[in-house]
Specification:
The complex is a heterodimer of chains A (about 210) and B (about 280). Chain A is of the alpha/beta class. Chain A has helices at about 45-55, 85-95, 100-110, 125-135, 155-170, and strands at about 5-15, 20-30, 35-40, 60-65, 70, 145, 175-180, 190-195, 200. Chain A folds into 2 domains: about 1-65 and about 175-205, Rossmann fold; about 70-140, no CATH class. In chain A, helix 3 (about 100-110) packs antiparallel against helix 4. The longest helix of chain A is centred in the C-terminal third of the chain and has 16 residues, at about 155-170. With about 280 residues, chain B is mainly α. In chain B, about 70% of the residues lie in helices and about 5% in strands. Chain B is built from 10 helices and 2 strands, in the order ααββαααααααα. Chain B has a two-stranded antiparallel ribbon. In chain B, strand 1 and strand 2 (about 60-65) form a beta hairpin. In chain B, helix 3 crosses helix 5 and helix 5 runs antiparallel to helix 7. The chains are: A alpha/beta (about 210), B mainly alpha (about 280).
Chain lengths: ~210, ~280
């Protein structure tokens, strides 16, 4: 492992009833690394990420993290009755942030500043996902775990997301992204294919 | 200390905002309660009936029309309180889990929900008691208000628990409507003149219904009778706290960095032990 390991998953097993999803999965992410996790639908990518962030308990194996982390779930987890600004205020309290300058920068970057007073229930699918992502990034954590964070993004925002991910990596942050899109693979430093409950490293082609 | 206060007030403010943006509940409050009471007043039979309140041990003689108005007010406020608490809890529960994992103090989130219920109770109680006072001068308006408040708290608590436990909006609405329908029906001296069935006194509205009926027409003291519903409020709040705790617990805390092949700095290890997840 490198000098600054942010996430280390060792021999993690997880089953839902008789259906075994993870069978001894190992995964390590270091600072300044942009890692891709790929795999077929239902292969266990989201389960692996939920275990990585502590939302789900593995049946066996260990998870070690260092530093705060930001987690962007696959399905937007927001409150439809609250506006964009109210979401930022709630998470400002949760993260104990002194101000929201960086959060609003992210909102600008992702291109939904005009929706700051709009209730989440009235946002388009893509904008809901932008808010979902902004809530994971707004405290600028050293480890980011993003589960298909750009679903519903238009092409420009999709490109801006990868530009942002690259910027975070160059600042020394560790970024894990679940992706299905072949043309995204060029952005990764390492690609890990989840197959039959285990992660297999794949060659990166740029 | 300031952070705790901020966490509570922000959560309370946004919880109340969520309630106020529940258009169906607001519409039901504005139109459903007065319409229901007015329709009963205008159409229900206005003959005198005598019934026994087993909880208070008194006989009450009153107009059937007014008796049904009391039952209708109880039904309306309990449906609305249960529905409001269910919807607010149900629609925010995934977000609450995310907030807690991000570092939001969960006690403050839960306290905000319960304080919001107390404020809703105060508002609904004043409103519904005022509407009943437009029909006739209640014998003990404050005691009727106390009975309505106790009923609202009991069903608000049930709505809170249902919001954490049930899987769909339709399920929650159905449970609230059916529970109040059965409870009000069983406690009404018109639909259930005997009112002495085994187990009836275990239902949430047993105390408030009898207290409201007695206080509306007689000078009988009924506050302790109303307070029976507070046991339901306390039990449902405690259950809600337990379910909320289980739903928002972190399944695996980061392990200490000691033992990693290349351990991060001490500072990073400390951060890892209280890592925030969004």
């Amino acid at each position: 492992m490198g000098p600054a390991t942010r996430l280390h998953i060792d021999a993690v097993h997880k089953a839902y009833g008789r259906r075994s999803v993870l069978r001894g999965t190992d995964f390590t992410v270091s600072a300044g690394m942009l890692a891709g996790v790929v795999g077929e639908n239902g292969s266990g990518k989201s389960t692996l990420l939920r275990i990585a962030v502590g939302m789900l308990s593995p049946d066996r194996g260990t998870v070690r993290r260092s530093g705060t982390l930001g987690y962007c779930p696959q399905k937007s987890v927001i409150n439809d009755t609250l506006t964009v600004a109210q979401h930022l205020r709630l998470f400002q309290v949760a993260y104990r942030l002194p101000d929201l300058h960086y959060a609003w920068e992210l909102v600008d970057l992702l291109g939904f500043h005009a929706e700051r007073r709009t209730r989440a229930g009235e946002l388009s699918g893509g904008t809901r996902q932008k808010l979902n992502l902004a809530l994971a990034l707004m405290h600028d954590p050293p480890l980011l775990v993003l589960d298909e964070p750009y679903q519903g993004f238009d092409w420009d925002t999709h490109q801006r997301f990868w530009h942002l991910a690259g910027r975070l990596r160059s600042r020394g942050q560790a970024v894990v992204v679940v992706s299905h899109l072949l043309h995204d693979f060029q952005h990764f430093d390492s690609i890990h294919h989840l197959r039959e409950g285990r992660l297999h490293a794949e060659a990166v082609t740029r | 200390m300031k952070h705790h206060w901020t966490a509570f007030t922000v959560a309370l403010g946004f919880t109340l905002t969520g309630h106020l943006r529940n258009r169906l509940a607001m519409s039901m409050t504005a139109f459903f309660i007065p319409t229901w009471i007015y329709v009963v007043r205008a159409t229900a039979l206005d003959k005198s009936i005598t019934f026994h309140t087993s909880a208070l041990g008194t006989e009450v003689t009153a107009s059937m029309n007014r008796t049904i108005q009391i039952s209708s007010a109880l039904h309306a406020v309990t449906v609305i309180a249960g529905f409001m608490m269910f919807m607010a809890t149900f629609s925010a529960r995934d977000m609450d889990q995310r907030l807690v994992l991000a570092g939001y103090p969960r006690a403050h989130l839960l306290a905000a929900k319960i304080v919001a219920l107390l404020l809703i109770t105060a508002a609904l109680t004043c409103y519904s008691t005022g509407l009943l006072l437009l029909s006739w001068p209640l014998a003990q308006p404050w005691a009727v208000a106390a009975a309505l408040a106790a009923a609202i708290l009991a069903y608000g608590g049930l709505g809170l628990v249902a919001g954490f436990l049930l899987r769909g909006e339709l399920e929650g609405f159905f449970v609230v409507v059916m529970a109040t329908l059965i409870d009000v029906g069983m406690q009404s001296p018109v639909s259930n003149p005997a009112g002495d069935q085994t187990g009836l006194n275990a239902l949430p509205l047993y105390g408030p219904a009898q207290a409201a009926l007695a206080s509306a027409f007689t000078p009988t003291h009924s506050l302790t009778c109303s307070a029976r519903a507070l046991a339901w409020f306390a039990a449902t709040s405690a259950l809600a706290a337990l379910v909320f705790h289980l739903r928002t617990r972190r399944h695996q805390r980061p392990m200490p960095c000691v033992g990693l092949a290349s351990a991060p700095t001490q500072n990073e290890c400390r951060e890892g032990d209280r890592s925030a997840v969004s």
